[in-house]
Design goal:
It contains seven helices and two strands. It is mainly alpha-helical. It has one domain: Arc Repressor Mutant, subunit A. The chain is globular and about 50 Å long.
């Protein structure tokens, strides 16, 4: 059973990981391989659609932690880049879904490969057991939170 001291350390480390500058450092590693139209602002929208599937701008904004107007603006940019399209929501005639285009799906796949390579470089010197413990721990935190 984890001690309070370990829980405090975890709280500190997660807080630092979630800081914008640390998220941005991860984004920057990925965005080097990104096509025009994908940047720090639009990447969370594109990545979120890749993980969640078609979403309204409001639902996507809630899921990725940005405001609704930002999600709509960033979706406009991704639409101009032919990475997403808007479709009527079959469950709500008043709503519109943001959907990846085939080009958007390919871009998400390429960006995931770039992120995987970046992370592989970051953990390349770690013992396998330590990297696996990190993966397992994050997985447990997510499963217990949801």
């Amino acid at each position: 059973m984890a001690s309070m001291e370990l829980a405090r350390d975890l709280e500190q480390v997660l807080g630092r990981l979630l800081l914008r500058r640390n998220r941005s450092a991860l984004y920057d590693a990925v965005l080097d391989a990104a096509p025009t139209g994908v940047d720090r602002q639009t990447y969370p929208v594109l990545s979120g659609l890749g993980r969640l599937g078609p979403q309204t701008a409001a639902r996507l904004a809630d899921e990725v932690g940005i405001d609704r107007s930002g999600a709509s603006r960033y979706a406009d940019r991704l639409q101009r880049a032919s990475l997403i399209e808007r479709r009527p929501d079959p469950d709500d005639g008043r709503a519109t879904l943001l959907v990846l285009t085939p080009q958007g799906e390919d871009t998400v796949a390429d960006l995931r490969i770039a992120l995987t390579r970046h992370l592989a470089g970051r953990i390349s010197e770690w013992p396998d057991w330590q990297a696996q413990a990190l993966v397992d721990g994050i997985r447990l935190l997510i499963e217990e939170a949801g």
